[in-house]
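task queued by scheduler; priority normal; single chain, no ligands, no partner chains; default sampling; output format set to structure tokens
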Amino acid sequence: MPSNLIIDLRPSSTLAYVVGVVLGDGSIWHPRPHEYTIGLRVKDEEFASAFLYALQHIGLGAKTMWCSQEAGREYHVVRARGKALYTYLRPMKDDPSCATEIALQYPRDFLRGMYDSEGSLHTDSTRYGYRHIQLPSTDRRILEVCGACLDSLEIPYYFYTYGRKPNSFNPHPFVVHKLALNRQCAIDRFLLEVGSSIPRKRGGT
């Protein structure tokens, strides 16, 4: 399969979505010469289909999508090869701040890619049914790009961090950062303007 394909890497809403996905659940790797792979493995078929469509839309060839079974769960897998896209995405995987420019050009699409990948929508069990949106990451730099996008849309949010300090049993610290939306008006705007390819993340709005 050819990996050095001519694709459209001009800034666009579709490319911003691809960047958001790759900074989330997506992955890129270069296992051997002339093989540059972009991939996604997720439980939601709608998400996998949206990512596959986005890759097709920017002109990437040699695309595949299939289902795999693991520990009784079904996963939908997307694989594509393209040196140009790999080369474009590699600096962003190494330093997520490199994605700031395209993310701010198309904040809704970038955020949709991240929300499809990492986001969650929860409704509490009280009679008020308050909703909460969270985007977690072990790399705060990714969430700072998301925060810049939300700032541009004037949607309020906040950061918090939790984790585990090193101790004698486990010398490695474990830290997770979260970007959260708790205001109901902010969640309404996020779900309306950003949305998701995954039905359960749309909140019925």
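post-processing summary
- The first helix runs from residue 13 to 23.
- The two ends are 42 Å apart (CA to CA).
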